Amino acid sequence: MLEQLSWKVGGQQGEGIDSTGEIFATALNRHGYFVYGYRHFSSRIKGGHTNYKIRVSTKVRPANADKLDILIAFDQETIDFNAHELRSGGVIIADEKFKPVAPEGMDIRFFVVPLTKFAEEAGSAIMKNMVALGASACVLGLPATTFESLITDMFLRKGQKVVDSNMTAISKGIEFMKENGGEIEEFRLQPGDGKQRLFLMGNDAIGLGALAAGARIMPAYPITPASDVMEYLIKKFPKVGGHVIQTEDEIAAITMTIGANYAGVRALTATSGPGLSLMMEAIGLAGMTETPCVIVDTQRGGPSTGMPTKHEQSDMYAVLFGTHGEIPKIVLAPATAEECFYMTIDAFNYAEKYQLPVLLITDLALSLAKQTVEPLEYDRIVIDRGNLATPEQLAAVEDGKLFKRYEFTKDNISPRVFPGQKGGVHHVTGVEHTEVGRPTEDATIRTKMMNKRLNKVQGELPNSVSYTGDENPDLLVIGVGSTIGVIDEALERLAAEGKSVGHAQVRVLSPFPTETLQKYVDKAKKVLVVENNATGQLKHLMQFFGVKGELQSQLKYDGNPYLPHEIYSHCKELF
Amino acid sequence: MATVKEFRNEVRPNWCPGCGDFSVQAAIQRALANTGREPENVAVISGIGCSGRISGYIHSYGVHAIHGRALPVAQGVKLANRNLTVIAAGGDGDGFGIGLNHFMHAVRRNMDITYIVMDNQIYGLTKGQTSPTSAHGFKNKTTPEGNIEHALTPAQVALGAGISFLAQGFSTDINQLTRLIEEAINYKGFSLVNVFSPCVTFNKINTYDWYKEHIVNLDNDESYDSGNRAAAMAKVVETNGLCTGLIFKEDRVAYEDLIPGYKQEPIVNQDITLSRELFNQCLKEFA
């Protein structure tokens, strides 16, 4: 029986590849499997090969599998482009309609199924994906009922007849495979635990996190792979009186975000590399004026326009050092969709607590891949708006005088006021300023203000680094963002072979957790930093911020996330 | 009710003696008092340059932001708190050079914001370079042989972009300017008041006398119809953009009143807690 399975559907963009994958993944998620869905898409809307790869497992596996077990092909290109990923004995289910040709010289099982024909018989050719799902179900030994609740939820509003015809299409797929040797013993999938969990992508989790954190304004400019965050909130904000505004460019997006935060509303924007570059000057303004704001950067292949629909982790330098001058900044790097939710809430709390820009960075795989997540907990939502001026503080300001918005305090955090509050009138400027916001070039005040801003955050933030594995490992692997799943999987294999390994996951890049990382590095014999970029940004950041020790790099920057065996093989060489 | 005095502060503007911007500042302060605003309910958002300093010279909330970005900051403020009177202000380089894209889109969006541009046809604070409104042939630090580019005419651009409220003033006529700013503040939608505000230090061509000679005051033309966009455009073209008064005004629903689900009560005053019920509803979509 299989503990895990890798399944892929492919065809032309625009012919329902996404929805086929979604239905397969969601149905299995509902049956208590851990599912990971990774879409391969090109920078075009219709036409061109696209595929959706789903990993189903009885354990948490937020990563692609090394090999493919089942490939559903809606066209010959799908076979030609993807058959090489199949494991020996793997299955291809191809639509009879395009007269499929089996790949040469491969040990695979090739099923030509009348997907379109059966779909037409069931009511409409568009249901060929349902026939394909039925055919897959047969191979895995899953009954048609696996899909029933989902099909009902999806189509009942169109009438019971539509539900029935979809179920018929699924059954036709199952029956055909049964009659043609498609029930394969070794493909039986272990049952899931039946627990109800969520299935969502990082971008959805960020959107939901922002909503839960009380964000109510999002100015943003569309860009792959960030747009889903705004698209999610466009649906939700009207229910809570908020608003997403599609701006003319990224500079407008960030400056509007700053304006809204200045005026007292939690606001965010989301972008990717090229947009982030445009926002840099304004991020400096937020730092200088101590205006909270949350900026989501979903990293993709760079530099310049790079590879807009491909995965990379190469904005770390830009995010940390991007604006001119020196400003305080917090940079959070969640690793899973679940963390995207909770850390987005943290981002808003930190932004207001420390009155500075908070950047939340993800990578394409984390932003767009869907994964099974334990139910998110309402009771863990905490809103901390930081140091807001009290009515007494406001009443103490004489008429015509200015409020000390940038008052020097012990913890370097001054009380905030919002326009509209009597007594709070003050001036905000990107120019160096006094405690009431008046421009100044006074050397003493300048130095004091710089110190105040730069010392607002002291020490490391909580949970900056997590650790799993042996206490004193022979090999320590350090990762950031979505590499968490592949590293875990690779190290699990090594541990099963008796190797001593550890995994440190960096979740905060600013303030950089030098001390904690040093502690783990000191305990390990060898250290490998795994990341998706060409220059080893995380490794260099560790060195820049003073982590001592010999650090090795494993780098991949071809646009695709790691496969577990790539990290496994590399690590194995190091013992 | 607040008086003009309450919109004043103790700061001495770092403008050159004789700068046109002094009158613009005074006109804004008068207009705010005349329209019954209180300092704490006003936010003046400015860009950079000499005129960008204006947010610091008016006793109200204010942001002196970055070059060209006054309008998006102002729109963010307005979205957060629609009860505020939001005034964006800056110069011709700020608004029609680096910020022109934002201007066109602010026009298109039509939020209830008043935008005041102090147009002196030159970059002042950087000591006299050619601006987007400098005339063709204009000789200056960056165009010693004469400007080979043509000037942008703000009024023409604004009308072309579909603006719903457009006025122009001249900084020596503070009474007209005050009246125009008042009307712009009271207008429920995006309004531009473009002010000819001479730079006495660096612009030796477009002086007070030069403007006096060239400006056509529409207040003196009873036959002029400010409700007709085509007539407004014709007048702007005819005067080469150098006309003052209310040039065009039409009724249009402001952006804020078209947002689905957006409440009359400003967001900033609302409870931001997400209800457990709505949270659970959101989770269901991912099950």
TrEMBL record, chain A:
SUPFAM superfamilies assigned to the protein according to its UniProt record, in alphabetical order: Pyruvate-ferredoxin oxidoreductase, PFOR, domain III (SSF53323), Thiamin diphosphate-binding fold (THDP-binding) (SSF52518), TK C-terminal domain-like (SSF52922)
Domain Pyruvate/ketoisovalerate oxidoreductase catalytic: 14-175
Keyword presence, Transmembrane: no
Keywords, ordered alphabetically: Oxidoreductase
InterPro entries (UniProt xref): 2-oxoacid/accept_OxRdtase_asu, PFOR_II, Pyruvate:ferred/Flavod_OxRd, Pyrv/ketoisovalerate_OxRed_cat, Pyrv_Fd/Flavodoxin_OxRdtase_N, Pyrv_flavodox_OxRed_cen, THDP-binding, Transketo_C/PFOR_II
Positions of the Pyruvate flavodoxin/ferredoxin oxidoreductase pyrimidine binding domain: 209-451
Any single GO BP term: response to oxidative stress
GO molecular function terms attached to this record: oxidoreductase activity, acting on the aldehyde or oxo group of donors
Domain Pyruvate:ferredoxin oxidoreductase core: 474-537
PANTHER family listed in its UniProt record: 2-OXOGLUTARATE OXIDOREDUCTASE SUBUNIT KORA (PTHR32154:SF20), PYRUVATE-FLAVODOXIN OXIDOREDUCTASE-RELATED (PTHR32154)
Listed name of the protein: 2-oxoglutarate ferredoxin oxidoreductase subunit alpha
From TrEMBL, chain B:
Residue span, Thiamine pyrophosphate enzyme TPP-binding domain: 49-195
Domain of life (superkingdom): Bacteria
GO biological process: cellular respiration
Signal peptide positions on this chain: none
Domain Pyruvate ferredoxin oxidoreductase beta subunit C-terminal: 199-263
Keyword line: Iron, Iron-sulfur, Magnesium, Metal-binding, Oxidoreductase, Thiamine pyrophosphate
Cofactor(s) listed: Mg(2+); thiamine diphosphate; [4Fe-4S] cluster
GO molecular function, a single term: metal ion binding
One Pfam family named in its UniProt record: TPP_enzyme_C
NCBIfam families: PorB_KorB
Protein known as: 2-oxoacid ferredoxin oxidoreductase
Protein's organism: Effusibacillus lacus
